[in-house]
Design brief:
Oligomer: single chain
Shape: globular
Strand order of the largest sheet: 2-1-7-6-5
Structural class: alpha+beta
Largest sheet: 5 strands, antiparallel
CATH architecture of the largest domain: 3-Layer(aba) Sandwich
Distance between the termini: 12 Å
């Protein structure tokens, strides 16, 4: 797929303006106190393509916590270390249609979480790694996937999550009570919090999107980080489940495998291949960056990036 460079630059510039305007009607997450300190007017977007060419707009260097975007990294790690069959014998791959922290269907329809992109599914996926993969190895993997050696744990966010994360602890113990959690719930949820607290940038998330869009290979270094089959699996689940309970409408309107986080991040694995990363902490009612979603709607429509275009 070849895109006209000047047209791409124009479209991204328009999208940035659209996103800035949309941010004013969103609100930052406040259920984790540290996230409430974010500037709701902040917005950054970064594009990186397979040739290493990039576009940068706004607050692309601001570090923020990955939150649910880290679920993509956790899933990639589980597939890498445990394999497809083992991973998906412990978590399903079906859209839930419920909010990201819901336990309703877990307690009424199945013992297994519906997918790895909701909290219950991510905690279950983390439990596959807790006893076998060190956090240092997971952080190193995250740094490679995001082409960002500066990724560390934001300790303030981690402490804030640790102090207020009772619902996620409840999910861990509920999974244990059903006999499906694969490790100690306390250590599992602690690791989950640490992964959510990884500090990233819009630039980091563009690189993550690019590597997935390129079939798991970093096109700049040439290193394969994720198998081609696993990259396809991850993108498929991002497409169907990556935007919380807005995933269906996002799939129709944008049609690009994406994953959001309540810290304001959005990573997109687009045709080209290209990766697009966003930071916009003002959220919509679903927990997605309002600015990023509006910007991606414009980018996808104008550049025909929808997977069915």
């Amino acid at each position: 797929m070849t895109l006209d460079k000047e047209n791409v630059k124009r479209v991204f510039g328009e999208a940035y303006d659209i996103g800035l305007a949309a941010a004013s009607s969103g609100a930052v997450a406040d259920y984790i106190p540290e996230l409430a300190k974010a500037d709701p007017k902040a917005f950054g977007m970064y594009m990186l393509d397979k040739n290493g060419e990039s576009l940068s707009f706004g607050d692309v260097g601001v570090r923020f916590s990955a939150q649910s975007v880290s679920k993509v990294i956790v899933l990639a790690a589980a597939l890498k270390f445990k394999g497809f069959d083992e991973t998906f014998s412990h978590v399903m791959m079906e859209p839930s249609g419920d909010s990201f922290n819901s336990i309703l269907k877990l307690d009424t329809r199945s013992n297994l979480p519906f997918n790895p992109m909701i909290n219950a599914g991510a905690i279950q996926t983390v439990s596959l790694l807790t006893d076998e993969v060190s956090f240092a190895d997971l952080m190193d993997f995250a740094r490679k996937l995001c082409r960002d050696d500066g990724i560390t744990v934001d300790e303030r966010v981690f402490r804030s999550e640790f102090m207020t994360g009772d619902r996620n602890r409840a999910i861990g113990y509920l999974l244990k009570s059903k006999g499906v959690l694969q490790s100690d719930p306390k250590r599992t949820v602690d690791l989950y919090f640490r992964m959510c607290s990884l500090s990233v940038t819009a630039k980091s998330l563009a690189a993550l999107g690019l590597i997935l869009a390129n079939g798991g290979v970093d096109p700049i270094s040439g290193e394969r980080l994720v198998s081609e089959d696993h990259a396809r699996t991850i993108k498929s689940i991002m497409f169907t489940c990556g935007m919380y309970d807005y995933s269906g409408k996002y799939g129709v309107r944008v049609g690009v495998p994406s994953k959001s986080g309540v810290g304001g991040g959005l990573t997109c694995a687009a045709k080209g291949p290209m990766g697009i990363g966003f930071y916009g902490p003002a959220l919509d009612k679903f927990g997605n960056s309002k600015a990023a979603v509006k910007a991606m709607e414009h980018i996808s429509r104008e550049l025909k990036l929808h997977v069915f275009d």
